[in-house]
Amino acid sequence: MVFSSHIFIFFFLPLVLAGYYGMLAAKTSITSRHLFLTCMGMVFYGWHNPWFVLLMLGTTALDYNLGKMIVNAEKLREKGATDAQVHARKKLGMVLSVVSNLAALAFFKYTAFGVESIQGVSDWMGWGHVTVPEFFRNIVLPAGISFYVFQSLSYCVDLYRGHAKPAESFLDFTCFVSLFPHLVAGPIVRYGIIAEQMRHRVHTVDGFALGLTRFGFGLGKKILLADPMGVIADQAFGAGDGSLSTMTAWVGIIAYAFQIYFDFSAYSDMAIGLAKLLGFYFVENFNSPYKSASITEFWRRWHMSLSTFLRDYLYIPLGGNRMGVSRTYVNLMLTMVIGGLWHGASWNFIIWGAIHGAMLSFERMMGKKSFYGAMPKPLKIILTFFILLITWVFFRAENFEVAKRFLATMFGMVQAGPTAALLEAQMLTDVKIYQFLLCAFVVWVMPNTQTILHRFVWWKAVIGLVLFVVAVIMMFTIGHSPFLYFQF
User: Fold this and answer.
1) Are 53 and 174 in contact (CB under 8 A)?
2) Which of 15, 244, 363, 373 could form a disulfide bond with 368, CB atoms 3.0-4.6 angstroms apart?
């Protein structure tokens, strides 16, 4: 189910709110409310493919029991176990959780990619065709698996590290994993951060109003900004050989940069707003990332729940910056390459991550006192956005050949064919200059959503309501409007 759909806005959400607040009014137990939210989360997740609910329940049950194994390891001391034996028991539970979750993710997300890569290597080496059962080529990727696997996995790791308290019951943990606001596309919520909210939540009128307003802002951002930019980007990346001019290529990639930011930050706004309606407070996920003056700063502002996850569960365990300069660069590269692969099973995502890793290493090597670090901030913001545009080509293109051709066109290295003028005229007709200017104004001038909505003010709620109404009206004209990050 999609937040920006009629079934969600007019049926599912009202049903959830009526049921949840009806239970609050009746003073039912928090266990009953968690059972209700869990059931609604299952309906939300299994709307298009109910079988995927079984996979989510399987990983959830496994991690809950492995978490109990980690916590109960302390009881071995009563039976005379040594510290080393207790530690080994805890570590076994944590390792089993990491291995099983990553194995599930790898099977569903990377099997087809592995098969294609093996075939490509075989063709390149002249070994001939590799016969692979068709089953491995047609594995369907469950929606949101990259997000809920990370959230479930982090529970056991945090228990092992002593950074979280265990869930009071299997129902509480299942409710956390299946909580529909963050289930499919984040933010990545760690149990340790939300554990106290699972035990006790405060519901206020101001919090509810802020949640609705945040949802309205997010829906407006998605329908009124992201989707129009997506139409332009699709035209550019869907152009055939010789049908793209240098100008339309640049227009297309800038449109995609706007689309992916507004699309994903809109989802995060809506998720955070929905969570507030239920008394939960999620971490912020975006902080005006295109205002960044470096790639390092960009990753402190973009998809912050993922960047902190990669830092805490990958970069630091690899050694971080504690093992010398060379090892730091290696750790940065590995972290970003794996982060790229997390987004999708494609060499394009690996290249995207590698470029970001190389830039993080380069900026660390150059330092603040170099010519690069000493440039005026506006110039650094422009240069950073330029680098991001290059990386977004790999993120958006269907494969490496398309990305290579698109980049070559951007820099005038490909001769435009006779159909390029036709597409250029079509795109310039479709492109509304005010839409680009509005996107640029929101990106580089306006404060971010959480700054605007840090507290409830009636006129901000009115703006949110207007954005909501206009976006809903537009939804009737554009039909289905999926979020980009559903595919990751």
Assistant:
1) no
2) 373
Question: Catalytic amino acids?
Answer: 343
pTM over 0.90? The answer is yes
pLDDT single digits (tens) 31-81: 999 999 999 999 999 987 888 899 999 999 999 999 999 999 988 887 778
451/456 Cα distance (integer angstroms): 11
DSSP class of residue 139 equals P
Do 385 and 297 contact (CB within 8 A), yes or no?
no
Could you tell me which of 207, 208, 176 has the C-alpha nearest to residue 193?
Answer: 176
Q: Based on C-alpha coordinates, what's the Rg of the chain?
A: 24
Contacts of 435 (CB under 8 A, 6+ apart): 225, 228, 229
pLDDT in tens, 251-275: 999 999 999 999 999 999 999 999 9
Query: What is the pLDDT of the chain when averaged over all its residues?
Result: 89
Burial of 109 (0-12, 13-18, 19+ CB in 10 A): buried
